[in-house]
Design a protein that fits this description.
Elements (H helix, E strand, L loop, with lengths): L13 E4 L18 H8 L5 H8 L23 E4 L14 E5 L3 E6 L16 H9 L5 E2 L8 E7 L2 H12 L4 E9 L11 H10 L12 E4 L2 E5 L15 E9 L8 E3 L5 E11 L19 H4 L3 H5 L2 H5 L4 E2 L16 E8 L6 H8 L27 E9 L6 E5 L2 E2 L6
Parallel strand pairs: 6-15, 13-17
Antiparallel strand pairs: 1-2, 3-4, 4-6, 5-6, 7-14, 7-15, 8-9, 8-10, 10-11, 10-12, 12-14, 15-16
Length: about 425
């Protein structure tokens, strides 16, 4: 049910469900009190009378029709009530949003790293939807899919409630072709690229539950070698070079109380295709604009260029002259400053939480700048020094209203860590 209250400061009104009533809901069997005040006092015994009164005044507590109510108003059994919650100011995330495309129905943006897509936890005002609603004066903007806060790239927002459902179904029914680009470490758990505390942690992971073969689980195939079990050990794919391709199919699960998502035995719920475009033998001193001596590219034809072309600067190395999406690696982030880095093209066929990050880590190639995989470093959300090198670079779909084939490309790019 859509709120009758318009967003305030770009933030959607909250909702509460009263007990009782004839409609099916978890509290339908409860006996409803007579008034709104009795209901709220029973549900929020720790709240003072002044706080409850403020909910009806500053919070604009309203019923489903938008009619304002007071503490003495008769309660509608099973009714849905809406109110504006007070949210404190937030420190601004120092990034800006760029618009890729807009028409009457859609707004397509490049969401930068470190900006949440929608209100989430401590970031309510500082998210893409809230910012855009305020800056553009468009209270009806709604994101029809999500990107992780630390992932950059294309995010599609609906501008009109009347047509929103048609575009949401594209994502729900997996009729969107998504292409991501990513940079990942190619060295194994014991290699020079993993010196430091992460090496021991990765070895522990490799010997843990994921290392035990799950009977009957689907195989993961790739051009680089034999099939890997989908719930098999976290291990490197040996000596991958440009042109390597594989598909990983597994079951992902997020245990309570942690950030990490893990692969577990069972029916698959996640599928990812990956292809290695190019390899840097050493991270260039100036990001993607290093010198030929610092950059050695393998398989130039497969990657779409030569080592000389890569040495020509950021535009040649990224393939389309994008604005760099990330900065230098954080000192002390636990990630190696040198080592082989691969640029990948990724196609998720499902949309599970952290899917690309988990699958790349399970292949033994964790993403550059990832603060959670293979080891959760408990990152400070206001540390913007080491962007995750994962970019939602392209979206393709048939428009459900016009039937037109549509394709959007990100203007952002990726940057390997500096020496």
């Amino acid at each position: 049910m859509r709120s009758p209250l318009p967003p305030r400061d770009g933030i959607t009104a909250q909702r509460l469900r009263a007990p009782g009533g004839r409609r099916t809901h978890p509290r339908a069997s409860e006996t409803p009190p007579a008034t709104v005040g009795e209901w709220l006092r029973a549900d929020f015994p720790e709240a003072s009378d002044a706080e409850l009164e403020a909910l009806t005044t500053r919070g604009e507590l309203s019923d489903e029709t938008g009619r304002r109510v007071t503490l003495t108003s008769l309660l509608i059994p099973g009714g849905i009530y809406f109110f504006h919650r007070e949210f404190p100011p937030e420190e601004r995330v120092p990034v800006e949003i760029s618009v890729v495309h807009e028409d009457a129905e859609l707004l397509v943006i490049d969401k930068p790293h470190f900006l949440a897509s929608t209100p989430n936890g401590r970031f309510v005002r500082e998210c893409a939807v809230t910012r855009l609603r305020v800056e553009r004066g468009e209270p009806d903007l709604v994101a029809i899919h999500r990107l992780d806060r630390v992932t950059a790239g294309l995010l599609v927002l609906s501008r009109r409630p009347e047509t929103r459902g048609a575009y949401q179904r594209l994502f729900q029914e997996r009729r969107i072709r998504k292409t991501y680009r990513a940079l990942a470490w190619l060295d194994g758990p014991s290699g020079a690229g993993y010196a430091g505390p992460e090496a021991a942690a990765r070895e522990q992971i490799a010997g843990g539950p994921l290392a035990r073969r799950a009977a009957g689980s689907p195989a993961v195939t790739g051009a680089a070698g034999p099939a890997l079990d989908s719930a098999g050990p976290v291990q490197p794919v040996a000596e991958v070079s440009a042109g390597w391709a594989a598909c990983r199919v597994s079951r992902l699960h997020k245990p309570n109380g942690g950030r990490q998502v893990v692969e577990v035995p069972g029916a698959p719920n996640a599928r990812t295709e990956a292809r290695l475009l190019r390899v840097w033998e050493s991270a260039p001193a100036e990001g993607l604009g290093g010198t030929a001596a610092a950059v050695a590219e393998r398989g130039g034809a497969a990657a779409g260029g030569t080592a000389a072309a890569v040495a020509g600067g950021t535009a040649a190395a990224t393939g389309s002259g994008e604005q760099a999406a990330g900065g230098p690696a954080a000192a002390g982030s636990g990630r190696p400053a040198r080592g082989r880095v691969g640029e990948f093209e990724l196609h998720p066929h499902t949309g599970r939480t952290h899917q690309l990050r988990v699958h790349m880590n399970a292949w033994g190639m964790p993403l550059v700048g990832d603060p959670v995989y293979p080891v959760d470093l408990e990152p400070d959300p206001y540390d913007f020094s080491s962007p995750l090198q994962l970019l939602a670079s392209r979206l393709e779909f048939r428009d459900p209203l016009s039937g037109e084939e549509r394709m959007f490309e990100s203007g952002l790019g990726l940057r390997p860590p500096m020496e």
